[in-house]
Design a protein that fits this description.
With about 120 residues, this protein is mainly α. The chain is about 60% helix and about 5% strand. It has a two-stranded antiparallel ribbon. The longest helix has 27 residues. The model has no long low-confidence stretch (mean pLDDT about 95).
């Protein structure tokens, strides 16, 4: 049996499972936009949608070392697609690290390590 060193909460595990497909999809969409027009401005509406998702993801990552590097998008600054892509890539990487840290084999099945 694997020696489990880290535990998360059931709530964070559930939010992770719900938000990961959404953040990956959003990242993929912005990555495509960024390839075509990296300097294109992102609308305030898209920034609001992205920030709403990022705020939920931040709940999962609140106690992780990476949180200090994860910014929300500034609505007043009107970021470019390439800026949004960079920020989203950091969130995706942090969510993947969270999964690696708190999910694995408990001796009988693959599961979240929760207390």
């Amino acid at each position: 049996m694997e020696d489990i060193k880290y535990y998360t909460t059931q709530s964070k595990a559930q939010i992770h499972d719900a938000m990961t497909p959404l953040i990956k999809s959003m990242y993929s969409e912005f990555k495509e936009i960024s390839k075509k027009k990296p300097e294109s401005a992102v609308s305030k509406n898209k920034i609001k949608i992205a920030n709403r998702l990022l705020e939920r993801v931040r709940i999962v990552l609140a106690d992780e070392d990476t949180i200090e590097f994860l910014d929300l998008l500034d609505e007043d600054d009107i970021p470019q697609a390439s800026d949004v892509t960079l920020i989203l890539s950091q969130y995706v990487a942090s969510m993947e690290a969270f999964h690696i840290k708190y999910f694995g084999w408990d001796g009988s099945k693959r599961t979240w390590y929760v207390k």
